[in-house]
Amino acid sequence: MGYATKEQDHAKRTAQEGMYSTYNYMYKYLCDNYEPAQLDNMPSMALESLEHKLLNLGRQYSVKGNKKYNDQELVQDARQAICNFIDNNKSHGDTAHNLGKGQQATESFSTVRDAMQDLRW
């Protein structure tokens, strides 16, 4: 589960927002099926073909969730997913927002708890 409560998770799934957005769906598809080096060395025609594939996936995902889709938003999401996939080298980034934070030596329980939460990715 990606959110604090089941109700919040259900609301985000229904509205296809947050981690259930079409952008995240497209990015996950890229993570599952490609390597960043593949896309980085891909000719422009192949990238356009991939963009169209992502657009179709985004349309299907939106229809599946009974959400109206906007073609311009889907194009923007597809291009952003491809660019971020190549730039981020298939990683999710510092999603726990702990980059640069030191370990807490005095509070060992909270240190272990925080470390366990970081393992979700």
Biggest sheet architecture: none
Low-pLDDT stretches: 94-100
If helices are DSSP runs of H or I spanning 4 or more residues, what is the number of helices?
6
Strand content: under 5%
Give the integer mean of the pLDDT values. 76
Structural class: mainly alpha
- Number of individual domains: 2
**Structural shape:** flat
CA-atom Rg in angstroms: 18 Å
Helical proportion, percent range: 55-70%
Number of strands: 0
- How do the helices and strands follow one another from N- to C-terminus? HHHHHH
Distance between the termini: 13 Å
Provide a compact summary of the structure.
It contains six helices and no strands. With 121 residues, it is mainly α.
Structure in words:
It is a single chain. The chain has helices at residues 6-15, 22-33, 36-40, 44-64, 71-88, 108-118. It has 121 residues and is mostly helical. The protein has two domains: 6-90, no CATH class; 95-121. The longest helix is centred in the middle third of the chain and has 21 residues, at 44-64. The chain is flat.
